[in-house]
Amino acid sequence: MISDPAKAREIRPAPANPVLDGLLTLTSARVLPLPSGGSYSGYAGDLSCFLVAAVQGTVTACAYAQSDVLSPGQALAFWQCGEFTVQSVGDSVCMLVQLQGELPGRLLAPRLTDGAALFPRGGGAVREAVLALAVLDQEHARVSGTSASAHAYTMLANLISGPAAPSAAGADGPLSTLVEAAVGIIQEEFPFLEGLDELADRLEVSKAHLIRTFKKKTGISPGRYITHLRVEYAKLLLQGEDVSITYVAEASGFASANYFAKVFRRETGMSPGEYMETVPRQEQKRPTRRDAFLW
What we know:
Low-confidence stretches: 167-175, 282-295
Distance between the termini: 37 Å
Strand content: 15-25%
Number of helices: 11
Order of helices and strands: EEEEEEEEEHEHHHHHHHHHH
Largest sheet: 6 strands, antiparallel
Number of strands: 10
Structural class: alpha+beta
Radius of gyration: 21 Å
Shape: globular
């Protein structure tokens, strides 16, 4: 039995039976806890599929042509999409399974749009497969590749037998659309947003409705999410050579260096100066927002 299903771990099965090569192999399975604003980046190349499931908290899953906000219990499949990023909105736990071969693409084809497919109730299928592999990994020196492929096939069968993603006109449509739009704006423009009034105006909803809907979907307020992203970006800037606290505060979207220092201490337990002493200096250009978060 797994003592803590939310603890970070990675399972890499042994090579599968040669008969399965090119058809369906499970390359890796991960349990991935992410702090608020934390991210994971991967690459789905030729005949490669990644399945991302939200287990606890809310995450965004973004590729070049597709972006979705995943609530607990939901899953997203990326098929041959190239680079993708999974980022936590609040503290979260997600599970990722990497598959290789022709079969995933064939089975997922009816659901795929721009290389991705959303499964509103698919998180359970991914979670079941990952935990089963974790148990096998504990009981044996290494999970059999053939056994892993069998679990992968069962997982895919359970996914495609489940309901399709709701349409925008469905009961969950407006909620998802609003939150996804808010998350997108925040991720791209957090250093420049003047506040939630501006965000609500751009989304054409009241501030109270935005806060209520966002918190219901993600578990945290939009203001809290903005703060998390600003602090995480500030941490990256503070690792650069010859940076000033004033510059970092301004570049991260804080009104003043004093306010930045206050918020930074509240979020991290140390001042910006103390944080700079704990991390190695990096001789590199100051990161852009895309360097920092790979959006």
